[in-house]
UniProtKB/TrEMBL annotation:
Recorded coiled-coil stretches: none
Keyword rRNA processing: no
Domain remarks in the Swiss-Prot or TrEMBL record: The IMP cyclohydrolase activity resides in the N-terminal region.
Protein name per Swiss-Prot or TrEMBL: Bifunctional purine biosynthesis protein PurH
Pathway assigned to this chain's UniProt record: Purine metabolism; IMP biosynthesis via de novo pathway; 5-formamido-1-(5-phospho-D-ribosyl)imidazole-4-carboxamide from 5-amino-1-(5-phospho-D-ribosyl)imidazole-4-carboxamide (10-formyl THF route): step 1/1; Purine metabolism; IMP biosynthesis via de novo pathway; IMP from 5-formamido-1-(5-phospho-D-ribosyl)imidazole-4-carboxamide: step 1/1
Xref: SUPFAM superfamilies: Cytidine deaminase-like (SSF53927), Methylglyoxal synthase-like (SSF52335)
Gene designation per UniProt: purH
Record bears the keyword Lipid biosynthesis: no
NCBIfam families: PRK00881.1 (NF002049)
Domain MGS-like: 1-146
């Protein structure tokens, strides 16, 4: 049925002049209220005031203007119901076929948590949600438009005769979604302001079923947070490969979040396995950073997830899949790495980057139809909060968006040269490692850094350091020693290398035993949050042993 009447009442008037002009050209009568009617008239458009339809003026400063049978009857009357149409005719009510409404800016006004209560209340829309819900209920007869982005589609269909039932249904759902979010925002604000109650509402976009969850017997879906503006894997475009799995999303998120914490003028690469950065490095180019990150743990890197903050070029792609680069998988036998040549390139599940050079993209696609290539959007406003589900509830916290609060050297020995920059890099890696986390980082070239050893997920940080972080660093150094063809005593060389590394701990050192154990392993630089009741014991131990230690003031637990 061809639309004859439209009701327009808007807070956000963007695009409405052009839209309403086209409605006028189609012979559609426009009803409107208050400021919207004024805006349309000033643009030279013919408008009928709602008060002319209702026979009742706007009252109470506009609080009551559309809450009237001549409006809601026109919205709710079903065109396919003879009784409804007879009732409309009996009471002189004309149907309304098109509703263009958005609501008072309550969410925007209350973004300031200290906003005056009366101002907040005055921005609670009453008539708007009522009309939206009425129109959406009768979507078979009424097209309800809440988003300026839908104006073009609706207009195109009107010019073809009428808005399709499919479009009307989609618009109706959008209207109900808007009113539900609006009511949730009002509940949150008034509960907090009047009763000091914190209430949380979460709403995500359309769910995408995944093949399975973390394990094959678990079902899973992915839902997009449509309010998030931060560059993320969730908002990435999949350019190649098999569909993303639950674990792919989890690991890809960990990989990209790590490189996002590196200053954007520095090329960085993370290699993730089970959310831990088994490889993490910066470099003069992304390809050089990738080579160093991969060498951080080439066994774990097999089947891993990689992220970079740079456009992927051919040098990067060649390192992963090129014929000119030897590819090895490793096994451990009697404590030694046993390399095995692989002819198909390095096995990588997911590669995340801001973009891909066209030749690199085609090369990777040709080499592997399975590798998932994700293009992430440009950096946006960081999310403020994170959430974690527990059985029967959900935890809500501010997002950990910092590395250091301060950098205070608390020992006699200082962090000379690039040691402070190395400390920041190593703490960044530590932040993205599961607690208890201890990470060893080194400067392998001027201003270029690499994780050499990572200890993660241990009940105590002495084990994270001694059994994992330092052990892994020595394994990497031994492989490097052999590859370089060095001669002499490996232990002496390795101790010298370790003495120039920085050890980062994600939380304070509760006792001086970690310091003393670190010294016995050759470590001379430690960065940690500080804050233990026994900080002085650790400081004294460092001074006695000729070590440097700095406090950052920020803990980075990652459970």
């Amino acid at each position: 049925m061809k639309a004859k009447r439209a009701l327009i009442s808007l807070s956000d008037k963007s695009g409405i002049i052009d839209f309403a002009t086209e409605l006028n050209k189609l012979g559609i009568e426009i009803l409107s209220t208050g400021g919207t009617a004024k805006t349309l008239r000033e643009a030279g458009l013919k408008v009928t005031d709602v008060s002319e339809v209702t026979g009742f003026p706007e009252i109470m400063d506009g609080r009551v203007k559309t809450l009237h049978p001549h409006i809601h009857g026109g919205l709710l009357g079903r065109r396919d119901n003879p009784e409804h149409m007879a009732t409309l005719a009996k009471h002189g009510i004309e149907p309304i076929d098109l509703v263009i409404i958005n609501l008072y800016p309550f969410v925007k006004v209350t973004a300031d948590l200290e906003v005056d209560l009366e101002m907040a209340i005055e921005n609670i829309d009453i008539g708007g949600p009522a009309m939206l819900r009425a129109s959406a209920k009768n979507y078979a007869s009424v097209a309800v438009v809440t988003d300026p982005n839908d104006y073009a589609q609706v207009l195109a269909e009107l010019k073809q005769g009428e808005v399709s039932l499919e479009t009307k249904g989609r618009l109706a759902i959008k209207a109900y979604r808007m009113t539900s979010q609006y009511d949730a925002a009002i509940d949150q604000f008034l509960s907090r302001r009047l009763f000091q109650e914190e209430r949380l509402y979460m709403q995500f976009g359309q769910g995408t079923p995944l093949r399975y969850g973390e394990n094959s017997h678990q079902s899973a879906s992915f839902y997009l947070d449509e309010h998030s503006k931060e560059s993320s894997v969730a908002r990435a475009q999949v350019l190649n490969g098999k569909e993303m799995s639950f674990n792919n999303y989890v690991d890809a998120n960990a990989a990209y979040e790590a490189v996002k914490d590196i200053p954007q003028d520095i090329a960085a690469v993370s290699v993730i396995k089970h959310t831990n950065p088994c490889g993490f490095a910066t470099g003069a180019t992304a390809a050089l950073a990738l080579a160093r990150a991969w060498e951080g743990d080439p066994i774990s890197a097999f089947g891993g997830v990689i992220a970079t903050n740079r456009k992927v070029d051919m040098a990067f792609a060649e390192f992963l899949k090129g014929d000119s680069v030897p590819h090895y998988s490793y096994q451990v036998k009697d404590g030694e790495y046993i390399p095995s040549l692989v002819t198909t390139g390095k096995f990588v599940e997911v590669l995340i980057a801001p973009d891909f050079e066209s030749d690199a993209m085609e090369f990777l696609k040709k080499k592997s139809k399975a590798i998932r290539l994700l293009k992430v959007p440009p950096m946006g406003e960081p999310d403020r909060f994170t959430f974690r589900a527990i059985t029967g509830g959900i935890l809500h916290q501010g997002k950990d968006n910092q590395i250091f609060e301060t950098f205070q050297t608390v020992t006699k020995r200082d962090f000379g040269g690039n040691k402070k920059a190395l400390a920041e890099f190593t703490m960044t890696a530590c932040k993205h490692t599961k607690s208890n986390a201890v990470v060893l980082g080194r400067e392998y070239a001027p201003g270029q850094f690499q994780v050499m050893g990572m200890g993660s997920g241990q009940p105590n940080r002495v084990d994270s350091m001694r059994k994992l972080s330092v052990t892994k660093a020595k394994e990497n150094l031994k492989r490097e020693f052999d590859q370089l063809g060095l001669t002499g005593d490996f232990e002496s060389w390795a101790t010298e290398q370790i003495s120039n590394m920085v050890l980062a701990s994600d939380a304070f050192l509760p006792f001086d035993d970690t310091v003393r154990e670190a010294a016995s392993l050759g470590i001379r630089y430690i960065v940690q949050p500080g804050g233990s009741m026994r900080d002085e014991d650790s400081i004294k131990a460092c001074d006695q042993l000729g070590m440097a230690m700095a406090f950052t003031g920020l803990r980075h637990f990652n459970h």
